[in-house]
């Protein structure tokens, strides 16, 4: 059977500035939170050079064109535009993204620009980062520069990438800058990210920008470990915590009620100022970007300390299919998740802004990467996209994470995601088997499906 896709479906792949650009001090770029993090003692690697995409973007775009990409998602490093986070613009930084966008357009690749993918200008981090409400306005100022500059050339915009990861990594687990473990701060940061997003969307509309603007979330479908009521309750709580806490303010301008009440009682957070919820409600997105990698299965945690994230615990499924990095491969979860969001909030356009598989790639003696598992992972998820489309879920594009091997935030260069391989000693690029397969698939726009 042939699973065919709409002609205008946008197939592509994605990266993020800090993960690929390198050029840490080039052309007047300011320091970022991640530069600081990786320059702390005992870090084994950093993004100072990474793939050196900043200097090799032409070669990279040529490869993207060779594998038939119709669209490419990238992020702008705020500190290249505003080395101090606000105030004076660094024209050379802007020039880089100018060149990148023009090169993409010249190759018929639709740019999808993410304004913020975690690399916060250090100057703003020193002001308190997202915990400081003023940074919301700095973000709007920065967004305005990019909207003005790329008007008409960039048609697909995302405000913020995975606020949940920013909140959890930076303020709950203390694994990302600024290495905090504080629920009160975490909840406030989430609220400020929502405000920043909403104000940027409002500006986009006021400026009558052409194209579409949305946000990129990473909601996770959650299954209870058993039919026991306590596990079912735990699964509901986990869905609120991982997923709905971020979806509800974007799609409905509210926070999930039970969790909000609990957070305000327990942590006195988030502080919501009069008018804030109206701002969130007023910012209608054109689409929801969804990064999907896995599902979670959770059980009640009898040893809970009462914190919002430990009334449930993650469980490993006995016959589950896990990656080398312990992420469960569960393609149906994509369909389940989007169906659930549509059921909860009504019809909306989606882009799958990231989906892919992290691996220790093996290189054959002839230099090839024969990544059949990654290829199969991508294929299985594309089949689920078809299932969504058949079922009236409107997905308009899909981005493999990642276009090219890059720096994994906390796993370094070992965890590979790319369709294109990078030899980090020589910085040579080569297309992997998954990249060739994806190119053929895009050219055909159908999948032969006999399972
Ligand atoms: C990693 C992660 C990232 C994310 C991406 C989120 O290993 O570092 O998987 O690469 O997927 O940055 O938007």
Automatic annotation (TrEMBL):
<dbReference type="GO" id="GO:0008422">
    <property type="term" value="F:beta-glucosidase activity"/>
</dbReference>
<feature type="active site" description="Proton donor">
    <location>
        <position position="162"/>
    </location>
</feature>
<dbReference type="InterPro" id="IPR033132">
    <property type="entry name" value="GH_1_N_CS"/>
</dbReference>
<feature type="binding site">
    <location>
        <position position="117"/>
    </location>
    <ligand>
        <name>substrate</name>
    </ligand>
</feature>
<dbReference type="InterPro" id="IPR017853">
    <property type="entry name" value="GH"/>
</dbReference>
<keyword id="KW-0378">Hydrolase</keyword>
<keyword id="KW-0624">Polysaccharide degradation</keyword>
<keyword id="KW-0136">Cellulose degradation</keyword>
<protein>
    <recommendedName>
        <fullName>Beta-glucosidase</fullName>
        <ecNumber>3.2.1.21</ecNumber>
    </recommendedName>
</protein>
<feature type="binding site">
    <location>
        <position position="293"/>
    </location>
    <ligand>
        <name>substrate</name>
    </ligand>
</feature>
<keyword id="KW-0326">Glycosidase</keyword>
<feature type="binding site">
    <location>
        <position position="19"/>
    </location>
    <ligand>
        <name>substrate</name>
    </ligand>
</feature>
<feature type="binding site">
    <location>
        <position position="161"/>
    </location>
    <ligand>
        <name>substrate</name>
    </ligand>
</feature>
<dbReference type="GO" id="GO:0030245">
    <property type="term" value="P:cellulose catabolic process"/>
</dbReference>
<feature type="active site" description="Nucleophile">
    <location>
        <position position="354"/>
    </location>
</feature>
<comment type="similarity">
    <text>Belongs to the glycosyl hydrolase 1 family.</text>
</comment>
<dbReference type="InterPro" id="IPR017736">
    <property type="entry name" value="Glyco_hydro_1_beta-glucosidase"/>
</dbReference>
<feature type="binding site">
    <location>
        <position position="401"/>
    </location>
    <ligand>
        <name>substrate</name>
    </ligand>
</feature>
<dbReference type="InterPro" id="IPR001360">
    <property type="entry name" value="Glyco_hydro_1"/>
</dbReference>
<dbReference type="Pfam" id="PF00232">
    <property type="entry name" value="Glyco_hydro_1"/>
</dbReference>
<keyword id="KW-0119">Carbohydrate metabolism</keyword>
<dbReference type="GO" id="GO:0005829">
    <property type="term" value="C:cytosol"/>
</dbReference>
<dbReference type="InterPro" id="IPR018120">
    <property type="entry name" value="Glyco_hydro_1_AS"/>
</dbReference>
